[in-house]
Write a structure and sequence with these properties.
Strand content: under 5%
Order of helices and strands: HHH
Distance between the termini: 137 Å
Shape: rod-shaped
Number of strands: 0
Length: about 200
């Protein structure tokens, strides 16, 4: 590539009826000036282009770093999201299973309480029936004993001498009735005491 100095130092051979040397020199000077200006501009453009290439390389490197950072951030975000989803799913399953266990335990406990209450009711019913039966048997025994004693009293009254007046007989009957009433009260009291003890 020609330099401004090459153009400036260029010499032409003289020939007959050649061009005007002064005009040629003036034109060459103008060409040299313009070429030198273009040459400097070209050098400046080359330097600017080189600087821009370096800047572009730095920007390209920065862009690549940003892309890698974004990819890492996106990957991390996806991992965090997946982990959170998995944790939420595990928590949901654990909670559902725990609720199911609690409900089953509550049902078992309620069933056991019902069975225990039913057993207590049945036991109380059996005990009540036993007490009623015992009271009935005791009352029948008292009644039989009183009837036996009453028969003995009647037999004793019938064996009394007939010569006695009617008033003593009436008093004897009254005493017998009083004795029967007292015996009945004693029998009832004894029956109640037996039931309470039972």
């Amino acid at each position: 590539m020609l330099t401004p100095l090459d153009i400036h130092n260029k010499e032409f051979k003289r020939s007959f009826r050649g061009y005007n040397e002064d005009e040629i020199d003036d034109f060459l000077d103008q060409v040299v000036n313009d070429y030198e200006k273009l040459f400097r501009e070209n050098d400046n453009l080359k330097e600017e282009l080189s600087r821009m290439k370096k800047d572009n390389a730095q920007y390209q490197k920065l862009e690549n770093n940003l892309k890698e950072t974004l990819l890492i951030a996106q990957k991390t975000a996806n991992e965090v999201t997946d982990t959170a989803k998995q944790h939420a799913e595990n928590l949901r399953e654990s909670t559902a299973k725990e609720c199911q266990n609690m409900r089953r335990d509550a049902e078992i406990s309620a069933r056991q309480m019902v069975e225990a209450a039913d057993h207590q009711v049945k036991s109380a019913t059996v005990e009540y029936c036993r007490l009623v039966e015992a009271k009935s048997q005791f009352l029948y025994q008292i009644k039989a004993a009183l009837e036996s004693e009453l028969a003995v009293l009647h037999d004793a009254i019938d064996r009394l001498p007939r010569q006695q007046s009617a008033e003593p007989q009436q008093e004897t009957k009254a005493e017998a009735a009083a004795a029967q009433a007292a015996a009945s009260q004693q029998g009832a009291a004894a029956a109640d005491g037996a039931v309470q003890k039972g």
